[in-house]
Amino acid sequence: MSETELAIPGSFRDPSGFVFQKSGQFCRRILPAGKKDFSFFLGSGLCRRLLDSGKIVPFTFADGDKNTLLLEKLPFISYPYEWSFSQLKEAALLTLEIMEESLECGMILKDASAFNVAFRAGKAVFMDHTSFTLYEENRPWCAYGQFIRHFLLPLLLMEKKDLLLLELLKNDLDGIPLELGGKLLPYRSYLDVDILLHVHCHALFEKRFSRRKGEFAEPQMPLKRLKHLVGALQSYIRAMKFPRVRTLWGGYQGSCSYTPESLEAKKSLVEDFCRRGAFSTLCEPGSGGGEFTQIAARYASKVIAADSDPQAVEHLFQLSRKFTNIYGMLLDLNNPTPALGVFNRERSSFFERFRGEGVLGLALIHHLRITGNWTLEQIAAFFDMTAPKALVEFVPRDDPQTQQLLRGREGYCPDWELGQLTETFLRFYKKCRHHFLPGSKRVLLELEK
After folding, report:
1. What is the pLDDT of residue 383?
2. Angle CA(284)–CA(290)–CA(295) in degrees, nearest 5?
3. What is the pLDDT of residues 147-189, one digit of tens each?
């Protein structure tokens, strides 16, 4: 690799190729070990089928170099542990659809990592052009176990137990261990034939296989059975439903202390801020289900919306079908996504990716100050590191929502008042303009460096 080429830290495990950046362009280098497979991938028609259907990231070849792909840059990268239930489900189905098409063209996916999938314009897209290898007769799918750990098991835990169990993917980048996941599933899961086979029996087989010594016969799986396996997984996952739960965001809807007049004024101010900014990237932490996100999406090229409630993030993903420039992610600001993997460099932290020209902080900072115990300086520093322009909502002490947070500790946070907050923000921003909402004591602070 030349001095001008910057390797992507998360792309080093595949001996067939790797991703790097050169002069702002993302590229994929095909290594000698991957040339035969990639050549077949191109010649079999599989590559063209996937490109035409929008299932794989488009690319062109570098001038005079057929071993270097120039990749289309994706607007935003989020990770599986930051997705909604439906995002993970769509990524799983995309992987199976690509596996199915690969078999039809004489190829097979050699890995089935959820990290091979990203989202673009409200749809899942496959990123790894070197995941394809030649199919060998009667060989089983070597990535089957990885698919279960990365997709089926997390989906089952979310559907059967708790949506927040998705975050177990943070603890192991190779997916949720089958034995652990099997223990977390309810006992009645043993009565479901698919779960019994794909999770419980699979976990038992893995445990026994790891203890086995000496030589053993290679498992066999005819092509017909392999296709049946892929089809059965597709049918099962397609039938999975978002669980009926009432989360904090779901319970919060309709309980906000706005009059019709103040709510309309807030929407108007948000729209004016976004229209004047015409931001390339606008960030919205604490976005909820996207009431104001969709206003921002009309003016910003890209909106990155983050919330700690999985139901809200699910709603954001559904909203991104209409507003395709919205990218939602599951994120608790009190425990943000850290940098993970080898040397903590494979997967970027939340703060490395959550940057823009503008940021909205609506009905958020009173939660950070009172519930999260953030200092005023930490709150201002967060907005400062996110964007040079901000619109932040101050919810005073006597507001019903703040009173609810302060219940039982009325003397807490004596610095929670508009003057001190303004003074703190002015240490980081040059300008701070107040917009008082009519019919409410809430104030929107417009900040600019």
Report:
1. 98
2. 80
3. 999 999 999 999 999 999 999 999 999 999 999 999 999 999 9
SS3 state at 211: helix
d(CA 264, CA 409): 32
pLDDT at 415: 94
Give, as one character, the DSSP assignment of residue 111: -
How far is CA 385 from each of CA 26, 358, 359, 390, 429, rounded to the nearest angstrom? 25, 11, 10, 11, 11
Q: Write the DSSP string, 47-99.
A: HHHHHHTT-B--EEEETTEEEEEEEPPPS----GGGS-HHHHHHHHHHHHHHH
pLDDT tens, residue by residue, 67-100: 999 999 999 999 999 999 999 999 999 999 999 9
- 248-448: which CATH topology? Rossmann fold (3.40.50)
What average pLDDT does the chain have?
Answer: 93
pTM here?
0.94
In the three-class reduction of DSSP (H, G, I as helix; E, B as strand; rest coil), residue 10 is classed as coil
Mean pLDDT on 96-111? 97
DSSP 310-360: HHHHHHHHHHTTTSTTEEEEE--TTSPPPPBSGGG-SB--HHHH---SEEE
Please check whether residue 224 is in contact with residue 232, taking contact to mean a CB–CB distance below 8 angstroms.
Answer: no
Give the integer Cα–Cα distance in Å for 129 and 102. 12
Query: What residues pair up with 65 in beta bridges, in sequence order?
Result: 62
Longest dimension (CA), the chain: 78
User: For residue 254, what pLDDT band results from cuts at 50, 70 and 90?
Assistant: very low
- Token readout for 98 is 């690509």
Task: Give yes or no for a contact between 305 and 380, defined as CB atoms under 8 angstroms apart.
Answer: no
Reference 131, options 301, 13, 280; nearest CA is 13
